[in-house]
Amino acid sequence: MNVREKIQNFESLTLIKEAAFSKNSIGRKIREEDDDIRTCYMLDRDRIIQSKSFRRLKHKTQVYIKTFGDHYRTRLTHTLEVSQVARNIGAGIGLNENLIEAIALGHDLGHVAFAHNGEEVLNEYLEDGFRHNEQSVRVVTKLENNGQGLNLTEEVINGILNHSGLGSVKDIITLEGIVVKFSDKMAYLNHDIDDSIRAGLLSKEEIPREIVKVFGDTSNERLNVLIKDFIKKSNDNLNNGVKEIGLSPEISEAMTELRQFMFKNIYLGDTLKVERNKAKFVLNQLIKHFEENPYEMPDIYVSIAKNEGLKRGVADYVAGMSDDYCLSLFNKIFIPKFVID
User: Which residue, 325, 341, 277, is CA-closest to 333?
Assistant: First the structure.
């Protein structure tokens, strides 16, 4: 018996029957030999961590554009916090933590530079629109590994595709994927409040009192309430034969209200409007430039432009850029250089 088989046996002893067991995975689009040490979900996790797209997350904005403070979240630290929250929930319910981790680490690989501002630009640019969750799937199935993709399991791809929003979970094929979907919102609402207070754009006193009564007044309190409620409600359902996991109605309603508050006052509020417009200007100029000069793009995007259309190639290239690379490229292309005689 090799190490992978021992891990799979351990799964059968420790996970609940509703969990996603690695030995029962739907599998990959391109069949591969099993690894001697890692389960299929562990292998997926490793491929995501070792990808270029994952490394670029460290220079992609979470909410605050080009913040120089060391303690503001980036898309990478957000991803790690989602993984932390999701794995804690998974352990509390008895789900497959390796699958949870793989989905969580890959869920935002398709996010554009400058947070949702970049997504809005590409959504207007492409005729069929642009959604970062779909782009994340495109990254892992097509763009990574020099155009070969990462050949991940269907369970991980499905979880990545369906992580966005707070809507229906009917298209998510594993409970682990549902955990990541909720954990994403728990993580970003919590840490975006923290960052907003740090930036002086929000005070604790501005958060509606009815929400504070439910979640408490600190980062730790908010996460504890959300995680513990999700575990308790989910375990109650599963123990009563109901294969549904999620938050209790009271906590779910409070989280929705908090999300609406943050969208109104921070994400889409007037406070960051000037910076959002600057970011959109930079991206629109780069898009226009590469539409006019497609052969300046790397070969993989030139190939996509030929086979799938110019806009698709340009969108894939721009979507993969980090904030720093966008600004550096913008300066290189559009900012005059000083010449000294």
Answer: 325
User: Which tokens is 272 given?
Assistant: 């960051």
Torsion of CA 21, 153, 227, 181, to 10 degrees: -140
The mean per-residue pLDDT over the stretch 18-38 comes to: 97
**Measured distance CA(189)–CA(258) in Å, rounded:** 8
Return the residue matching tokens 């930036």.
Answer: 199
* pLDDT tens column, 56-87: 999 988 775 555 677 888 899 999 999 999 99
The answer to whether residues 39 and 153 touch, using CB atoms and an 8 Å cutoff, is no
Tokens of 175: 């409970």
Which residues are CB-contacts of 183 (< 8 A; sequence separation ≥ 6)?
82, 85, 86, 89, 104
How many C-beta atoms surround the C-beta of residue 301 within 10 A? 22
Q: Report yes or no: 62 and 75 within 8 Å, Cβ to Cβ.
A: yes
Q: What is the pLDDT of residues 207-219, one digit of tens each?
A: 999 999 999 989 8
Report the largest interatomic distance among the alpha carbons of the chain, rounded to a whole angstrom: 81
Rounded Cα distance between 58 and 50, Å, is 13
Contact 117/124 with Cβ under 8 angstroms? no
Are the C-beta atoms of residues 317 and 300 closer than 8 Å to each other? no
**What architecture (CATH level 2) is domain 3-269?**
Orthogonal Bundle (1.10)
Tokens 């409007």, located at residue: 273
Q: How far apart are CA 231 and CA 225, in angstroms?
A: 10
Alpha helices in the chain (DSSP H): 3-14, 40-49, 52-56, 75-93, 97-106, 115-125, 132-138, 144-147, 154-161, 175-198, 209-215, 219-239, 249-262, 273-292, 299-308, 310-320, 323-334
pTM equals 0.95
**Position 217: which residue type?**
D
For residue 243, the model assigns a pLDDT of: 93
Q: What is the tally of helices (H) and strands (E) in the chain?
A: 17, 0
